[in-house]
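Structure Section — protein described below
Tokens — whole-number codes for backbone shape
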Amino acid sequence: MRRNFHETKEPAVMIIPMIDIMLFLLVFFMVSSIFMVQSNTIQVNLPAASAAKRDTRPNIVPVAVAEDGTIQYRQETVSLQELPEKVRGSLLDDAETVFVLRGDRKTSYENMVSVLDVLKRSGTRHVSIATEQRKE
């Protein structure tokens, strides 16, 4: 039996390779976004703690205190007097915001306590202090 030249076969849609590519892209963007969030913060040498763990809540605001006492709130340098207004603004957006205090290990204890005091007076309910995992 001869086939007519003008007869065409229906093209086959291969769905499995498309699903594989979509899952690969999803994982790629999830992993790359994690590294982008961490690379946008001020570089500080965190103190080490053996009970350190990563917080995975959705609305996390980094507050960094550098060695010289400079304060960065979401990658923006602010003074201690400007900090309460920024904190209250974040709390208006989401009352369950978690503030992660990242202090350089060489910064003074007074600088850290001042920032922590401002966070608490501004009405925060969730404050974490960032540390590195101690290698034992």
Q: What stands out?
A: The mean pLDDT is 80. Residues 44 and 104 are 5 Å apart (CA to CA). The beta strands are 48-49, 60-65, 71-73, 76-78, 98-103, 126-129, 132-133.
